[in-house]
Amino acid sequence: MDPHSFDSRAATWDDEGKVQRASAVARTILETVPLDPSMRLLEYGAGTGLVTQALRDAVGPVTLADTSTGMREVIARKIEAGELTNARIWDVDLTTQPVPDDRVDVIVTVMTLHHIENVSAVLAAFAELLVDGGRLCVVDLEEEDGSFHGEGFDGHRGFQRSRLAEDLVGAGFSDVEFRNCHEIERSDGRYPLFLATCCRGASLVI
């Protein structure tokens, strides 16, 4: 994933229909995962922080991580303006850098994994960042034919649910569940998104 490709889009990101998508994603997460104001949340691949903004009142301290300088600058302006409170920014790429010496209760990542070549490495990093019993929420594209990004894209063409579930279990997660989340409608078709939730560590079922 080239962060520079997002830098030029950062200033107008919130004007490109992303607010509605972020609201729908946050609503599905809130309906699925029990959140409370004591929980520390990390959004990885946060963009301009729209999903975190939509979840802000449901959680405690928030950390927003993105490899794009332009996106982080927009987040910083939101924090300065008071649009994002009790928030900090991380410039970290979990595919190439060590996992920060910190722990969180919830990780949310939206439309990020399909840009990452080594998904397993990032999932393992998520497991390391989460406390035991912490929750991971992954929102991404259902498997598609490559039309979403078109020719020249070197990421994943969405994900097959069963394959991603295997990767999550392999990274140390349990209680993997999927549900429909949202649908991106464009002139070339509709692209459904899923929400995958899981728990770090052993199954919650006793």
Key words describing this protein structure:
alpha/beta, Rossmann fold, 206 residues, 7 strands, 28% strand
Compile the SSE list and pairings.
Blueprint: H1 4-7, H2 18-32, E1 41-44, H3 50-55, E2 62-65, H4 69-80, E3 87-90, E4 104-110, H5 119-129, E5 130-141, H6 161-170, E6 173-186, E7 189-200
Parallel strand pairs: 1-2, 1-4, 2-3, 4-5
Antiparallel strand pairs: 5-7, 6-7
Beta-strand content bin? 25-35%
Number of helical elements: 6
Radius of gyration computed on alpha carbons: 16 Å
Give the overall average pLDDT: 91
| Helix percentage range | 25-40%
Number of domains: 1
Shape: globular
For the largest beta-sheet, the strand count, sense and barrel status come to: 7 strands, mixed
CATH third-level topology? Rossmann fold
Extract low-pLDDT stretches.
none
Indicate the CATH class.
Alpha Beta
CATH architecture: 3-Layer(aba) Sandwich
Please describe what this structure looks like.
With 206 residues, this protein is of the alpha/beta class. It has a single domain (4-200), classed as Rossmann fold (3-Layer(aba) Sandwich). 28% of the residues lie in helices and 28% in strands. The chain has helices at 4-7, 18-32, 50-55, 69-80, 119-129, 161-170, and strands at 41-44, 62-65, 87-90, 104-110, 130-141, 173-186, 189-200. The N and C termini lie far apart (40 Å). The relative contact order is 0.15. The model has no long low-confidence stretch (mean pLDDT 91).
